[in-house]
Amino acid sequence: MPKILAIEDDPTTGREIVAELEQHGFAVEWVNDGRRGMARAVSGDFDAVILDRMLPGPDGLAIVTAMRGADVDIPVLMVSALSDVDERIRGLRAGGDDYLTKPFASEELTARLEVLLRRRTAAPRDMSLTVADLELDLISRTAHRQRAEIRLMPTEYRLLEYMMRNSGQVLTRTMIFEAIWGYHFDPGTNLIDVHLGRLRRKIDRPGQSPLIHTIRGSGYALHAPE
Fold first, then answer.
1. pTM of full prediction above 0.70
2. How high does pLDDT run on average in the chain?
3. DSSP annotation string for 53-121
4. Which of 14, 80, 105, 178 has the least CB density, counted as fewest CB within 10 Å?
């Protein structure tokens, strides 16, 4: 039974989340303030976290930043009434894996959470992937280039794994979005730009031959230097 931490200060929304997830077989712990929520989230004792963006005490951004700083890599689904694109980007850059805008349908919350959990528990087909001097260990979920470790957030890891498994192929934005986020592509979203830009800065450091390439008008590709 997956164990979920829900950090939500609104009592109505909190009760709805608990009822919805318990109906689908999840064990849910509900915390209604940022201070206690941060302590529970950083413990890493959960399979996923549903995190409200605006909270009394430390807010959602502070909590997810603390989690990633403590190397807690469990999936985080951020929920918020702040629907502005810049706010969604802030949440993703802080370490969130997905962002759901309030008000939302309970069924969509469950579906997105299930997608995040499936990605985390999927068994790797190989032990590792290698492209040029970049290696991704699928067991330890770590990346190295020229023997230097590259610290990856969960979504960055999934994006890199997908691109390395499809090395040399042009991947359209739709392909990437549906493979990583698992729901219908929204052409107006900045999710891909945010995560790919962050991944590229980590993989292609100054002085290194670039491995991630933008194919103008088509998409992106990861391949060894020509």
1. no
2. 87
3. SS-SSS-HHHHHHHHHHTT----EEEEES---HHHHHHHHHTT-SEEEESS--HHHHHHHHHHHHHHHH
4. 105
